């Protein structure tokens, strides 16, 4: 978790306009929406995804920045928080190939702790998120593009269930629970997206 906080703090620092070295770098933005597809124990699934990349154009070919958005796995909402890199192969053309890598964390901040009628507590915790993508940029203006992309995305998270033995149990203290189980779950996704880049 400390690594995630360090990445987040570094991103905020790099994106802060008060850093004089960063003022000369042009800002770039890329928003995309699409579908996550994959298989799990319940069969094939298709889910909604949205993400936005905000960063600095380090050169004509390379950009570095911050990625966030929303991945919806059925009733589970995951908020990706990551560092991202984008590289364009042929920026001089109207039709351009690009690639990207995002590394970070999938937060389950929107997911509440659920307590059943049998006093079973269930909660989710986020985990590592990694994504690699390739895509096509189609120029619509001097620095505006429509995009189509294909990506592989891996998302880890933990589902914890337990029955407390004390009135105010600590989720991080298994001894506060008469029953306590933690399941590590991984979503492996093939992702199809359309977007707009400027």
Strands, helices and their partners?
Elements: H1 2-15, H2 20-23, E1 27-40, E2 43-57, E3 62-73, E4 76-88, E5 95-107, E6 114-115, E7 121-139, E8 145-164, E9 177-197
Antiparallel strand pairs: 1-2, 1-9, 2-3, 3-4, 4-5, 5-7, 6-7, 7-8, 8-9
List keywords for this structure.
eight-stranded antiparallel β-barrel; 9 strands; mainly beta; 9% helix; 198 residues
Description:
This is Outer membrane protein beta-barrel domain-containing protein. It comes from Cyclobacterium plantarum. The chain is mainly beta. It has helices at residues 2-15, 20-23, and strands spanning 27-40, 43-57, 62-73, 76-88, 95-107, 114-115, 121-139, 145-164, 177-197. Strands 1-2-3-4-5-7-8-9 form an eight-stranded antiparallel beta barrel. The radius of gyration is 20 Å and the shape is elongated.
pLDDT average, as an integer?
87
Helix tally equals 2
Q: Return the structural class.
A: mainly beta
Low-pLDDT residue spans: 14-22
Helix content: under 10%
N-to-C SSE series?
A: HHEEEEEEEEE
- Rounded Rg: 20 Å
Q: Name the assembly state.
A: single chain
The coarse overall form would be: elongated
| Binned strand content | over 45%
Can you list the strand order of the major beta sheet?
A: 1-2-3-4-5-7-8-9
Count of beta strands:
9
The largest β sheet comes out as: 8 strands, antiparallel, barrel
Distance between the termini: 32 Å
